[in-house]
Amino acid sequence: MVFGICPGLGPSGLLYSQQSAAVRETRIDVGGAELYAREVGKGPPIIVLHGGPDFDQSYLLPEMDRLSDVYHLIYYDQRGRGMSANNVRPEDVTLASDIADLEKVRQYLHLESVTLLGHSWGTVIALEYALKYPQRVSHLILMNPGPASRDDYMELRKDWLEKRPEAMAQRKAIAETAAYKEGDPEAVTAYYRIHFKPAFARMENYEKLIARMHADFTKEGVLKARAVEDRLMQDTWAKPDFDLLPQLKTVKIPTLVLSGDHEFIPRSSAEHIAQAIPIAQLTVLKDCGHFTFIECPIPVHKAIDYFIAGTSPARHQGRSVWRLRSYAGNKE
Predict the structure, then answer these.
(1) Which residues of the chain have pLDDT under 70?
(2) How far apart are CA 113 and CA 92, in angstroms?
(3) 275: which of 152, 163, 317, 323 lies 20 to 30 Å off by Cα?
(4) Cβ distance 130 to 140 under 8 Å?
Protein backbone atom coordinates (compact mmCIF):
# COMPACT_ATOMS: atom_id res chain seq x y z
CA MET A 1 0.00 0.00 0.00
CA VAL A 2 1.47 3.37 -1.02
CA PHE A 3 0.73 6.81 0.36
CA GLY A 4 2.27 9.71 -1.55
CA ILE A 5 1.50 12.86 0.42
CA CYS A 6 3.33 16.15 0.13
CA PRO A 7 5.39 16.99 3.21
CA GLY A 8 3.61 19.63 5.27
CA LEU A 9 0.17 18.19 4.67
CA GLY A 10 -2.03 16.86 7.42
CA PRO A 11 -3.81 13.48 7.47
CA SER A 12 -6.60 14.63 5.19
CA GLY A 13 -4.29 16.44 2.77
CA LEU A 14 -4.90 19.88 4.32
CA LEU A 15 -2.01 22.10 5.27
CA TYR A 16 -0.67 21.10 8.69
CA SER A 17 -0.27 23.98 11.12
CA GLN A 18 3.01 24.12 13.01
CA GLN A 19 1.31 26.14 15.77
CA SER A 20 1.05 23.98 18.84
CA ALA A 21 -2.25 23.33 20.54
CA ALA A 22 -2.62 24.31 24.18
CA VAL A 23 -0.60 22.05 26.46
CA ARG A 24 -1.90 21.03 29.89
CA GLU A 25 0.60 19.85 32.49
CA THR A 26 -0.16 18.09 35.74
CA ARG A 27 1.24 15.84 38.46
CA ILE A 28 -0.41 12.50 39.14
CA ASP A 29 0.06 10.95 42.56
CA VAL A 30 0.53 7.20 42.05
CA GLY A 31 1.73 6.33 45.56
CA GLY A 32 5.45 6.65 46.14
CA ALA A 33 5.86 8.95 43.16
CA GLU A 34 4.30 11.91 41.39
CA LEU A 35 4.24 11.40 37.65
CA TYR A 36 4.70 14.40 35.41
CA ALA A 37 1.98 14.29 32.73
CA ARG A 38 1.44 16.41 29.65
CA GLU A 39 -1.78 16.58 27.63
CA VAL A 40 -2.39 18.18 24.26
CA GLY A 41 -5.19 18.06 21.69
CA LYS A 42 -8.79 16.90 21.68
CA GLY A 43 -10.43 13.79 20.33
CA PRO A 44 -10.02 10.07 21.00
CA PRO A 45 -7.55 9.63 23.88
CA ILE A 46 -4.11 8.12 23.29
CA ILE A 47 -1.70 7.46 26.16
CA VAL A 48 1.85 7.67 24.83
CA LEU A 49 4.47 5.44 26.47
CA HIS A 50 8.04 6.55 25.91
CA GLY A 51 11.01 4.28 25.30
CA GLY A 52 14.25 3.68 27.13
CA PRO A 53 13.70 2.26 29.70
CA ASP A 54 16.01 5.08 30.82
CA PHE A 55 14.48 7.93 28.78
CA ASP A 56 11.53 10.25 29.33
CA GLN A 57 8.94 11.77 27.00
CA SER A 58 11.10 14.72 25.87
CA TYR A 59 12.69 12.90 22.92
CA LEU A 60 9.22 12.37 21.39
CA LEU A 61 8.62 16.10 21.04
CA PRO A 62 7.66 18.06 19.07
CA GLU A 63 7.02 15.55 16.26
CA MET A 64 4.54 13.33 18.11
CA ASP A 65 2.41 16.39 18.83
CA ARG A 66 1.35 16.37 15.17
CA LEU A 67 -1.24 13.80 16.23
CA SER A 68 -2.88 16.36 18.50
CA ASP A 69 -4.80 17.82 15.56
CA VAL A 70 -7.02 14.71 15.73
CA TYR A 71 -6.32 12.99 19.06
CA HIS A 72 -6.11 13.79 22.77
CA LEU A 73 -2.51 12.87 23.56
CA ILE A 74 -1.48 12.01 27.11
CA TYR A 75 2.24 11.70 27.78
CA TYR A 76 3.86 10.99 31.12
CA ASP A 77 7.39 10.43 32.36
CA GLN A 78 7.58 6.94 33.79
CA ARG A 79 8.45 6.53 37.46
CA GLY A 80 12.06 7.40 38.26
CA ARG A 81 12.69 9.06 34.90
CA GLY A 82 12.66 12.63 33.68
CA MET A 83 10.35 14.87 35.68
CA SER A 84 8.91 11.88 37.55
CA ALA A 85 12.20 11.13 39.33
CA ASN A 86 11.79 13.19 42.50
CA ASN A 87 11.82 11.14 45.70
CA VAL A 88 11.88 7.85 43.76
CA ARG A 89 14.36 5.15 44.73
CA PRO A 90 15.45 3.05 41.72
CA GLU A 91 15.09 -0.12 43.78
CA ASP A 92 11.37 0.60 44.10
CA VAL A 93 10.79 0.64 40.33
CA THR A 94 9.70 -2.63 38.76
CA LEU A 95 7.79 -3.76 35.71
CA ALA A 96 4.81 -4.29 38.02
CA SER A 97 5.04 -0.71 39.32
CA ASP A 98 5.19 0.63 35.75
CA ILE A 99 2.03 -1.28 34.84
CA ALA A 100 0.30 -0.14 38.04
CA ASP A 101 1.30 3.47 37.32
CA LEU A 102 -0.24 3.27 33.85
CA GLU A 103 -3.49 2.01 35.35
CA LYS A 104 -3.48 4.89 37.86
CA VAL A 105 -2.94 7.38 35.03
CA ARG A 106 -5.98 5.94 33.23
CA GLN A 107 -8.06 6.13 36.40
CA TYR A 108 -6.93 9.70 37.12
CA LEU A 109 -8.11 10.76 33.66
CA HIS A 110 -11.43 8.89 34.07
CA LEU A 111 -10.95 6.99 30.82
CA GLU A 112 -13.10 3.90 30.43
CA SER A 113 -10.82 2.58 27.69
CA VAL A 114 -7.93 4.08 25.80
CA THR A 115 -5.57 3.62 22.89
CA LEU A 116 -2.03 2.85 24.04
CA LEU A 117 0.84 4.03 21.84
CA GLY A 118 4.18 2.65 22.92
CA HIS A 119 7.52 3.44 21.34
CA SER A 120 10.43 0.97 21.64
CA TRP A 121 10.57 -0.03 25.34
CA GLY A 122 7.14 1.55 25.75
CA THR A 123 5.66 -1.28 23.66
CA VAL A 124 6.65 -3.77 26.37
CA ILE A 125 4.66 -1.80 28.95
CA ALA A 126 1.73 -1.51 26.53
CA LEU A 127 1.68 -5.25 25.91
CA GLU A 128 2.03 -6.16 29.58
CA TYR A 129 -0.78 -3.76 30.47
CA ALA A 130 -3.03 -5.12 27.70
CA LEU A 131 -2.51 -8.64 29.01
CA LYS A 132 -3.52 -7.59 32.53
CA TYR A 133 -6.28 -5.10 31.66
CA PRO A 134 -7.57 -6.04 28.20
CA GLN A 135 -10.96 -4.44 28.83
CA ARG A 136 -9.27 -1.07 29.36
CA VAL A 137 -7.52 -0.96 25.97
CA SER A 138 -9.42 -0.12 22.78
CA HIS A 139 -6.42 -0.14 20.41
CA LEU A 140 -2.70 -0.88 20.57
CA ILE A 141 -0.16 1.06 18.50
CA LEU A 142 3.29 -0.49 18.82
CA MET A 143 5.80 1.85 17.22
CA ASN A 144 9.26 0.40 16.54
CA PRO A 145 8.61 -2.28 19.16
CA GLY A 146 11.21 -3.63 21.52
CA PRO A 147 11.61 -7.41 21.72
CA ALA A 148 8.67 -9.25 23.26
CA SER A 149 10.76 -12.28 24.23
CA ARG A 150 14.19 -13.16 25.57
CA ASP A 151 14.93 -14.98 22.31
CA ASP A 152 14.23 -11.87 20.25
CA TYR A 153 16.36 -9.78 22.61
CA MET A 154 19.25 -12.19 22.17
CA GLU A 155 18.71 -12.04 18.40
CA LEU A 156 19.05 -8.28 18.68
CA ARG A 157 22.37 -8.60 20.50
CA LYS A 158 23.60 -11.18 18.00
CA ASP A 159 22.61 -8.89 15.13
CA TRP A 160 24.59 -6.02 16.64
CA LEU A 161 27.66 -8.17 17.23
CA GLU A 162 27.62 -9.50 13.68
CA LYS A 163 26.82 -6.27 11.85
CA ARG A 164 28.42 -3.62 14.08
CA PRO A 165 31.33 -5.13 16.02
CA GLU A 166 33.35 -1.89 15.93
CA ALA A 167 30.44 0.13 17.28
CA MET A 168 29.92 -2.41 20.05
CA ALA A 169 33.61 -2.13 20.99
CA GLN A 170 33.44 1.67 20.98
CA ARG A 171 30.36 1.68 23.19
CA LYS A 172 32.02 -0.75 25.60
CA ALA A 173 35.12 1.44 25.81
CA ILE A 174 33.04 4.53 26.63
CA ALA A 175 30.96 2.61 29.20
CA GLU A 176 34.15 1.67 31.04
CA THR A 177 35.32 5.27 31.48
CA ALA A 178 34.99 7.08 34.80
CA ALA A 179 33.08 9.91 33.14
CA TYR A 180 30.39 7.59 31.78
CA LYS A 181 30.07 5.74 35.08
CA GLU A 182 29.63 9.08 36.85
CA GLY A 183 26.84 10.10 34.46
CA ASP A 184 28.76 12.87 32.71
CA PRO A 185 26.40 14.20 29.99
CA GLU A 186 29.18 14.51 27.42
CA ALA A 187 30.26 10.89 27.88
CA VAL A 188 26.66 9.66 27.86
CA THR A 189 25.97 11.60 24.67
CA ALA A 190 29.06 10.09 23.06
CA TYR A 191 27.76 6.62 23.96
CA TYR A 192 24.33 7.23 22.46
CA ARG A 193 25.86 8.90 19.39
CA ILE A 194 27.37 5.51 18.56
CA HIS A 195 24.34 3.54 19.69
CA PHE A 196 21.75 5.39 17.61
CA LYS A 197 23.72 6.08 14.44
CA PRO A 198 22.36 2.96 12.65
CA ALA A 199 18.83 3.76 13.87
CA PHE A 200 18.23 6.40 11.18
CA ALA A 201 17.83 6.49 7.43
CA ARG A 202 18.95 10.13 7.24
CA MET A 203 21.77 11.71 9.22
CA GLU A 204 20.05 15.08 9.72
CA ASN A 205 17.38 13.36 11.79
CA TYR A 206 20.05 11.49 13.74
CA GLU A 207 21.77 14.76 14.63
CA LYS A 208 18.42 16.23 15.67
CA LEU A 209 17.82 13.42 18.17
CA ILE A 210 21.36 13.53 19.58
CA ALA A 211 21.14 17.30 20.16
CA ARG A 212 17.76 16.85 21.85
CA MET A 213 19.02 14.10 24.14
CA HIS A 214 22.20 15.98 25.04
CA ALA A 215 20.18 19.02 26.09
CA ASP A 216 18.08 16.81 28.37
CA PHE A 217 20.89 14.93 30.15
CA THR A 218 21.90 15.79 33.71
CA LYS A 219 24.29 13.76 35.81
CA GLU A 220 21.72 13.07 38.53
CA GLY A 221 19.01 12.20 36.02
CA VAL A 222 21.27 9.89 34.04
CA LEU A 223 22.40 7.94 37.09
CA LYS A 224 18.89 7.44 38.46
CA ALA A 225 17.44 6.49 35.07
CA ARG A 226 20.32 4.07 34.48
CA ALA A 227 19.67 2.36 37.82
CA VAL A 228 15.95 2.15 36.94
CA GLU A 229 16.84 0.64 33.57
CA ASP A 230 18.95 -2.04 35.27
CA ARG A 231 15.98 -2.95 37.48
CA LEU A 232 13.58 -3.19 34.53
CA MET A 233 16.05 -5.23 32.50
CA GLN A 234 16.07 -7.81 35.29
CA ASP A 235 12.27 -7.98 35.07
CA THR A 236 12.20 -8.46 31.30
CA TRP A 237 14.90 -9.05 28.71
CA ALA A 238 17.46 -10.39 31.20
CA LYS A 239 15.09 -13.11 32.43
CA PRO A 240 15.73 -16.45 30.71
CA ASP A 241 12.00 -17.22 30.57
CA PHE A 242 10.76 -13.79 29.45
CA ASP A 243 8.35 -14.45 26.57
CA LEU A 244 5.13 -12.55 25.95
CA LEU A 245 4.47 -14.11 22.54
CA PRO A 246 2.42 -17.14 23.68
CA GLN A 247 0.24 -14.90 25.87
CA LEU A 248 -0.30 -12.41 23.04
CA LYS A 249 -2.34 -15.03 21.19
CA THR A 250 -5.11 -14.30 23.72
CA VAL A 251 -5.13 -10.54 23.04
CA LYS A 252 -8.26 -9.59 21.08
CA ILE A 253 -7.36 -5.92 20.75
CA PRO A 254 -6.91 -4.32 17.30
CA THR A 255 -3.19 -3.72 17.00
CA LEU A 256 -1.02 -1.68 14.65
CA VAL A 257 2.68 -2.58 14.60
CA LEU A 258 4.74 0.20 13.01
CA SER A 259 8.32 -0.33 11.90
CA GLY A 260 10.83 1.09 9.43
CA ASP A 261 12.91 -0.42 6.68
CA HIS A 262 16.03 1.07 8.36
CA GLU A 263 15.11 -0.25 11.82
CA PHE A 264 18.13 -1.28 13.91
CA ILE A 265 16.10 -3.90 15.75
CA PRO A 266 15.75 -7.04 13.61
CA ARG A 267 12.49 -7.07 11.65
CA SER A 268 11.68 -10.43 13.21
CA SER A 269 10.84 -8.74 16.56
CA ALA A 270 8.00 -6.73 15.00
CA GLU A 271 6.90 -9.66 12.85
CA HIS A 272 6.67 -12.03 15.82
CA ILE A 273 4.42 -9.58 17.68
CA ALA A 274 2.17 -9.02 14.64
CA GLN A 275 1.95 -12.77 14.05
CA ALA A 276 1.09 -13.50 17.70
CA ILE A 277 -1.78 -11.02 18.14
CA PRO A 278 -4.92 -12.29 16.35
CA ILE A 279 -6.08 -8.85 15.14
CA ALA A 280 -2.82 -7.20 14.13
CA GLN A 281 -1.25 -5.60 11.13
CA LEU A 282 2.39 -4.80 10.43
CA THR A 283 3.13 -1.53 8.64
CA VAL A 284 6.69 -0.99 7.42
CA LEU A 285 7.61 2.58 6.47
CA LYS A 286 10.07 3.23 3.67
CA ASP A 287 13.18 5.32 4.42
CA CYS A 288 12.55 5.24 8.18
CA GLY A 289 14.54 3.86 11.06
CA HIS A 290 13.80 3.33 14.75
CA PHE A 291 12.33 6.81 15.23
CA THR A 292 9.57 6.73 12.63
CA PHE A 293 7.75 9.68 14.21
CA ILE A 294 10.79 11.88 13.47
CA GLU A 295 11.69 10.60 10.01
CA CYS A 296 8.23 9.85 8.61
CA PRO A 297 5.71 11.88 10.65
CA ILE A 298 3.08 12.20 7.91
CA PRO A 299 2.97 8.50 6.94
CA VAL A 300 2.86 7.64 10.66
CA HIS A 301 -0.13 9.97 11.12
CA LYS A 302 -1.82 8.52 8.03
CA ALA A 303 -1.30 4.93 9.18
CA ILE A 304 -2.71 5.70 12.64
CA ASP A 305 -5.71 7.52 11.16
CA TYR A 306 -6.57 4.58 8.90
CA PHE A 307 -6.08 2.14 11.74
CA ILE A 308 -8.19 4.03 14.28
CA ALA A 309 -10.89 4.65 11.70
CA GLY A 310 -11.14 0.92 11.08
CA THR A 311 -10.37 1.15 7.38
CA SER A 312 -7.22 -0.92 7.60
CA PRO A 313 -6.94 -4.41 6.09
CA ALA A 314 -7.15 -5.93 9.58
CA ARG A 315 -10.80 -4.96 10.00
CA HIS A 316 -13.05 -8.01 10.16
CA GLN A 317 -10.25 -10.21 8.80
CA GLY A 318 -8.28 -11.42 11.78
CA ARG A 319 -4.56 -11.04 11.24
CA SER A 320 -3.36 -9.01 8.29
CA VAL A 321 0.29 -8.20 7.59
CA TRP A 322 0.86 -5.43 5.08
CA ARG A 323 3.27 -2.62 4.25
CA LEU A 324 2.78 1.13 4.07
CA ARG A 325 5.54 2.79 2.12
CA SER A 326 6.69 6.34 2.52
CA TYR A 327 8.01 8.65 -0.16
CA ALA A 328 10.94 10.84 -1.13
CA GLY A 329 10.01 14.52 -1.24
CA ASN A 330 6.56 14.80 -2.79
CA LYS A 331 6.96 11.72 -4.95
CA GLU A 332 6.36 8.01 -4.54
Answers:
(1) 1-20, 311-332
(2) 28
(3) 163
(4) yes
